Amino acid sequence: MTRKSIISAVLLLWVVLAQCQTIQSKVFELLDLNRPGLEKVKILHQTGKDDEAAAALLDYYRVRTNIKHPTVILDKVTISKDEQKWADDALNHVFFAHKGYQPSYNYGADINWAYWPVHDNELRWQLHRTKWWVPMGKAYRISGDEKYAKEWTFEYMDWIKKNPLLIYTKEEQAKLTKEELSKLENVGFAWRPLEISDRLGAQTDQFTYFISSKNFSPAFLTEFLLNYQLHAEYMMQHYSKDGNHLLFQSCRIISAGTFFPEFKNAEKWRKSGIDIINKEIGVQVYDDGFQNELDLGYHRGAIETFIQAYKTAAFNGFGKEFPQSYKDKIEKMIMATMNSSFPNYESPLFSDGHGGSKSVAIRQYKEWAKLFPENKQIAYMASEGKSGELPPYLSKRFPNAGFYIFRNGWKDDATVMVLKAGPPAEWHNQPDNGTFDLYIKGRNFFPDGGSYVYGGDAEVLKKREWFRQTMVHKTLTLNNANIETMDSKCLLWNTDTNIEKLVVENQGYPGLKHRRAVFFVDKTFFVIVDEAVGNANGHVAIHYQFAQGEVKADNSTNQVTTLFEDGNNVTLQIFGDKDMKMIEEEGWVSYEYGKKEKRPAFGFQCEKNSNKSVRFITVIYPTATSVPKMLAKLVDNEMQEKAVNVSLRIDNKKYDLKANW
Q1: Dihedral angle at the C-alpha atoms of 273, 275, 280, 283, nearest 10 degrees?
Q2: Closest CA to 306 of 284, 338, 287, 339
Q3: What are residue 162's phi and psi, to 5 degrees?
Q4: SS3 of 295, please?
Q5: Domains detected in the chain
Q6: Does the active-site annotation cover 593?
Q7: Of 140, 228, 286, 298, which residue is the catalytic one?
Q8: Which segments of the chain have a pLDDT < 70?
Q9: pLDDT per residue over 545-582, tens digit each?
Q10: Long-range contacts of range 455-458, CB-CB < 8 Å, 24 or more positions apart?
């Protein structure tokens, strides 16, 4: 098919769909026509003049000033280079569905909303979030070019036509044809509650950007409102049971009820969302401020969701429906983010986290500072240290979530270890208890592997499961299997001396407990003592994965040294039983969805064939020009049930490291 014929086909389809835009009189039954400003609409509808009533309703929305959008300010619209590309690409049905799959796919002149080029569920789910529509709205407001509004209304109506909400009983499903089952499968993607809620939120932006367009006709308005009502009502009946999805859904139903108070059910929507999110901030956020998925990326997302819900309501006079405790918990969450971040504003990629940029983090802190103007520590982060104050402490324990941060400073030259050893967590969490990231002078030497992808068919799921393995985290395994229990207990946390100490343990396997003691010595280097306790037998190993780059590995000394040319390096050396073997392992790290980079990784393995414990001592020492001679051993060759005592020598300096609990 030639380009000319494709364009002709698209124009023909546009005409057909445009003709499908008829006044949906049912919408007037859904609106409270007794509201101030809708008097004319009411009279016209009651006299059977629904065409004129729809036109009057459109006029009402175009001049409405009593509702404030919390984020869209029409005289300050900006669009990024990427957003402009997404808007322009969408004119040719090249849709930006997922950042992990670039360049974007073309969904055809006759849009195929069920197109699934890679069987990753996220790609197909996120297609139905239509995230390119808001950039199209921005492009329209900035340029005034009606092509964006015309195409948006076309795509909006095309989506409605091709993605009907089909509901069948089990008995009815059993009688469906293959084609009908295929359509039902599409419902599972298009009408999943998370995607419904995403559209509920985003369409308030689209409505605001496009409402003044001549392509936003009275008939289209009734189609839009009818579709929006369907979304909101279905969402009310299909909230997720728990987790971050429920947060997003409740936030966006608040947006629906607040932004469109003309609906008869708007107050019900708003109150439902506010009730849920007020409850969930207590359920999902620990007293120490961390969200219960133990994923630092989703933690930030939860902060933004809680704030968005509050701002949406507060901007329109409903702020009092949130108690002070709600804002207090958000402030705790922000402080948890600050403490678990490195000086470059990045956080470990624990669980399903992905790397974020410093510019985005600073922008978030600036918004947070507006909400909490009295918090000088948030002000410090927002201003990059130009104002505000640093916390009066360095290292910090978060007892509920099980995050432990060793820190000798807050600036770029600091050393920061963030260790994760918490309770059972939600879906995004990985079986990684005891793992850590270590940042020294601007470099994360042991970044967590991230998640790579989420899930889909067997091929995609296999990729996800590789990154979830316990053995690709910096912790202990039995026969390289995933730990079965994630419920770490803190036995000791002491930062009052020059040798800071942490002891945690987790019954990872039915017959094996992993106890990990960490010493932060002279606020400079780390000694980690791991013990595998129990009657289970097999290969016990400690695993370490380094940042991308060259390393020097010495099997004879069980030592690995990074070789970065800037001189900022570390040496890791393991001391263990005589039969310990150093094994080079497969290593990958994923900073962005669907992208991975190779990196050095090693396992240190011993055989356990009795009730006797297996022990490892790891020394991680910053090095510049030369590697020191190191020797470490357990005093009396034992790690007691309630004590550990390590004799360490670094060149000619001796250290006695003791911990009792």
Answers
A1: -160
A2: 284
A3: -95, -5
A4: coil
A5: 396-628 (2.70.98.70)
A6: no
A7: 298
A8: 1-20, 355, 637-640
A9: 999 999 999 999 999 999 999 999 999 999 998 889 99
A10: 455/120, 455/121, 455/122, 456/118, 456/119, 456/120, 456/121, 456/122, 456/123, 457/119
